[in-house]
Write a structure and sequence with these properties.
With 248 residues, the chain is of the alpha/beta class. The protein has a single domain, classed as NAD(P)-binding Rossmann-like Domain (Rossmann fold, 3-Layer(aba) Sandwich), CATH 3.40.50.720. The protein has eight helices and seven strands, in the order E-H-E-H-E-H-E-H-H-E-H-E-H-H-E. It has a seven-stranded parallel β-sheet with strand order 3-2-1-4-5-6-7, with helices on both faces. The longest helix is centred in the middle third of the chain and has 21 residues. The N and C termini lie far apart (39 Å).
């Protein structure tokens, strides 16, 4: 018997889990009783993050290359019930000086990695799936993939919009296997890719966020727990803005 909103006893893997949105998602799942694998490039950061969360496991890995994806997938044993594809990066340069590296580094990590990691983990996701409690993939997109913002982050915006569409495509193919695929599109949250609490940020928040503040841990935690639970078992292929109204 499955409790509707419970993730207790389920196994999760979160990429980019040592900071920002990834750390928020990992904490939300671990504190709700899931066994969370903490994935990031730095082994020490993974160990430090895992040590703070109940039942979490450090699993260092670099998903920016296909070799790294395959190495990570090779270390995953047993079923996976929840995959959070969060690892990402951003480059900002004027249109006239945007480089190939600015493009490739971002698209490889933000768009290519979620596809191939999900592909390589399909056997584990299938093993964790059931009609009453589907396995679930949660892709972390962005409000930048829903609207054009003021920053010149061309590859980031394209990669996140692509990830939103990829979410729908994969959801269509995997629904019959009891695997749901959804995306969240966060707005302004504290992270390494978002400036802090300075005057410029506060001005941007006041001008662009109807809720009048940046996102908080609970804003991510609530939607991630919901999508990872049986309560969301009939929801797939959706893009959920978690942005305080920025995309309106």
């Amino acid at each position: 018997m499955y409790e509707t909103f419970s993730v207790a006893g389920r196994t999760a893997l979160v990429t980019g889990a040592t900071s920002g949105i990834g750390a928020m998602a990992a904490a939300a799942l671990a504190e709700a009783g899931a066994t969370v694998h903490i994935v990031a490039r730095g082994a020490a950061d993974c160990e430090e993050t895992a040590a703070k969360l109940p039942g979490a496991v450090a699993l260092p890995g670099d998903v920016s290359t296909l070799d790294g994806v395959e190495a990570l997938a090779g270390h995953v044993t047993g079923p996976v019930h929840i995959l959070v594809n969060n690892a990402g990066t951003v480059r900002e340069n004027p249109l006239g000086s945007f480089t190939e590296a600015d493009w490739d580094d971002v698209v490889d990590l933000n768009l290519k990695a979620p596809f191939f990691l999900t592909q390589r983990l399909l056997p584990a996701l299938r093993a964790g799936a059931s009609p009453h409690a589907p396995a679930t993939v949660i892709n972390v997109g962005s409000v930048g993939g829903l609207r054009v913002g003021p920053r010149q982050t061309y590859s980031y915006a394209a990669s996140k919009a692509g990830l939103h569409q990829l979410t729908k495509s994969m959801a269509r193919r995997l629904a019959g296997e009891h695997i749901t695929v959804n995306a969240i599109a966060p707005g302004l949250f504290p992270s390494r890719m978002t400036p802090g609490d300075g005057e410029a940020v506060q001005a941007a928040v006041s001008a662009s966020v109807p809720r009048g503040r940046i996102g908080r841990v609970g804003d991510i935690g609530g939607v991630v727990r919901f999508l990872a639970s049986p309560a969301a078992g009939y929801i797939t292929g959706t893009i959920i803005p978690v942005d305080g109204g920025m995309s309106l």
